[in-house]
Specification:
Blueprint lengths: L2 E8 L1 H5 L3 H10 L3 E8 L3 H7 L9 H8 L4 E9 L1 H9 L12 H5 L8 E3 L3 H11 L9
Antiparallel strand pairs: 1-3, 1-4, 2-3
Bound molecules: adenosine-3',5'-cyclic-monophosphate (CMP).
């Protein structure tokens, strides 16, 4: 048993479509703890920092303009093995491959607008959490 924290972000299409409550409920019902949460309208600099590893890829510009197109809901989720469990709950990056019952499998079809992001490793989780939250903004115990 290893309690971990992971970074989750409901993307602009998820917020626009009124899916915030639905998505948060899934994590709560699974027994996960939300230890930080805020709504943010990202600017270009913040988005480029979050998606640094994709700089230079063909979809980078599209990705940056999409994630800055409206507010996102950023949160930190704490649970046993949170990183891999949350990734399973959100489903494959390409929603056409995401299984029904996953968030993308139930609410998305487009790889570009895929409703939600979650960290893919504990190292990325620490990095992404620190981009959005100061240490004293994350609840401890
Ligand atoms: P996310 O899990 O937030 O991580 C990187 C994001 O880049 C991904 O979700 C998608 O929204 C986006 N992305 C990945 N591949 C493509 C692609 N081929 N075309 C457009 N967007 C993509």
């Amino acid at each position: 048993m290893a309690v971990q924290r992971t970074f989750v972000m409901i993307k602009p299409d998820g917020v626009r479509r009124g899916l915030i409550g639905e998505i948060i409920s899934r994590f709560e019902r699974r027994g996960m703890k939300i230890v930080a949460m805020k709504m943010v309208k990202m600017d270009r600099a913040l988005a480029e920092r979050l998606y640094e590893e994709h700089k230079g890829k063909g979809f980078f510009e599209e990705l940056i303009s999409y994630v800055t197109s409206g507010p996102v809901v950023a949160m930190v989720i704490e649970a046993d093995e949170a990183v891999s469990v949350v990734r399973k709950m959100i489903g494959a990056t390409d929603p056409k491959e995401a299984l029904p019952g996953t968030i993308r499998g139930d609410y998305a079809l487009s790889k570009a607008e895929n409703v939600i992001h979650a960290s893919d490793s504990p190292e990325k989780a620490s990095r992404e959490i620190s981009i959005f939250f100061k240490e004293n903004e994350v609840i401890t115990a």
